[in-house]
Design a protein that fits this description.
InterPro entries: DIOX_N, IPNS-like_FE2OG_OXY, IPNS-like_sf, Oxoglu/Fe-dep_dioxygenase_dom. It comes from Penstemon smallii. GO terms for molecular function: 2-oxoglutarate-dependent dioxygenase activity; L-ascorbic acid binding; metal ion binding. Keywords: Iron, Metal-binding, Oxidoreductase, Vitamin C. This protein has helices spanning 2-25, 28-34, 79-95, 108-122, 126-129, 179-203, 210-213, 283-288, 343-353, and strands spanning 55-56, 69-71, 98-102, 141-144, 159-166, 219-227, 237-242, 248-253, 259-263, 266-269, 277-281, 298-301, 308-316, 322-323, 341-342. The protein is α+β, with helices and mostly antiparallel strands and 366 residues long. Strands 2-3-11-8-13-6-5-4 form an eight-stranded mixed β-sheet. Helix 3 crosses helix 6 (179-203) and helix 4 packs across helix 6 (179-203). It is globular and about 55 Å long.
């Protein structure tokens, strides 16, 4: 027994040493790729989760699902068209927790330049990029590899930068490679989020501005991922299974693919569609709608092609406001399923837990 404990302690110490050595390079996974590694380092290897009974159906699909794709054209001109879109968004948010939108009014050149901005930042000289590397998430701009590097069971094969762009961006802290386009993209994606929140409110029988008045889009944080090609994609993940700790997410992804969502206990591919944006419900939206709208687990597969680039816009609020299930959605037969919480409490718990394959919502359930 003593031998086993010593062995276990040695393994933990060795892993911590490897994690710190990787972190101290400040070069991220891109640095590993540039060094020409042919094997995935031990800290990135994901062991199969015995408790995970979700079926993977990438190639030999058990059931052919039609991922929801919604055309937003006409929402402000045609009341009947708007009602149809509201119904489709509500249905997708209840059953999938995910959908794609097009005709969203964000110009294609803005989408393309945003992707290019992420590429420029990640592919610049490493010594320049290192100055932004930090695990202090109170900073306006933070570049890092794996926010949960020291708490997750295994690291993911990606680098990221995180920037709070609303309500009070600090332009002087943004890198020149992507700062300007982030501010342009921010203006467009915030208008889209407000539109989507209005449609979701209407779908639940609430007033159009209900979620806006709840300040569900008061804060916007943009998280940009860069997934270098992986030498052993079957041994690691691009992003582990998780749900988002916000109200809604608007995702811009390139044409590489790899995003999957859980639907009817199966992993289903989210096809990259040129010009379209992916929208998903976050944990806090599921909490305030008392499980009416679903925050669904998703992941990104590692790949030997790339780099894959994605831009996730997370909409939420500053940390002090208390949120609980909306009274108008409750009844004697539908009592509250979650306790009240603040954004700070939820976010702190989510970050401390890391992407361990479990939902943070369980911690707040009554």
């Amino acid at each position: 027994m003593v031998v086993n404990e010593e062995t276990q302690a040695t393994t933990v110490n060795d892993r911590n040493t490897e994690l710190k050595a990787f972190d101290d390079t400040k070069a991220g996974v891109k640095g590993l790729f540039d060094s020409g590694v042919t094997k995935v380092p031990q800290i990135f290897i994901h062991t199969p989760q015995i408790s995970d009974n979700i079926i993977t159906i990438q190639n030999n699909k058990l059931v052919q699902f039609q991922f929801p794709v919604i055309d937003l054209a006409g929402i402000d001109e045609d009341p009947l068209k708007r009602k149809e879109i509201v119904d489709r968004i509500r249905d997708a948010s209840e059953s999938w927790g995910f959908f794609q939108v097009f005709n969203h009014k964000i110009p294609v050149n803005i989408l393309e330049e945003m992707i290019d901005g992420v590429r420029r930042f990640n592919e610049q000289d490493t010594e320049i990029k290192k100055q932004y590397y930090t695990r202090d998430f109170t900073k306006s701009f933070a570049y890092h590899s794996n926010f949960d590097l020291y708490s997750s069971p295994a690291a993911n094969w990606r680098d990221s930068f995180y920037c709070t762009v609303a309500p009070s961006p600090h332009m002087e802290e943004l890198p020149i490679q992507c700062g300007k386009i982030m501010m342009e993209y921010k203006e467009h994606v915030m208008q889209l989020a407000i539109c989507l929140l209005e449609l979701l409110s209407e779908g639940l029988g609430l007033s159009s501005n209900h979620f806006i008045e709840m300040e569900c889009a008061e804060r916007l944080a943009i998280l940009c991922h860069y997934y270098p090609p992986c030498p052993e994609p079957d041994r690691t993940m691009g992003t582990s299974k998780h749900s988002d700790n916000n109200f809604i997410t608007v995702l811009l992804q390139d044409n590489i693919g790899g995003l999957q969502v859980v639907h009817q206990n199966q992993w289903v591919d989210v096809p990259p569609t040129p010009g379209a944006l992916v929208v998903n419900i976050g944990d806090l939206m599921q909490l305030i709608t008392n499980d009416k709208l679903k925050s669904v687990e998703h992941r990104v597969l590692a790949s030997n092609v790339g780099p894959r680039i994605s831009v996730a816009s997370f909409f939420g609020r500053e940390s002090s406001k208390v949120y609980a299930p909306i009274e108008e959605l409750l009844s004697k037969d539908n009592p509250p399923k979650y306790r009240s919480t603040t954004i700070k409490e939820y976010t702190d718990y989510f970050r401390a837990k890391g992407l361990d394959g479990t939902s943070a919502l369980l911690h707040f359930r009554l």
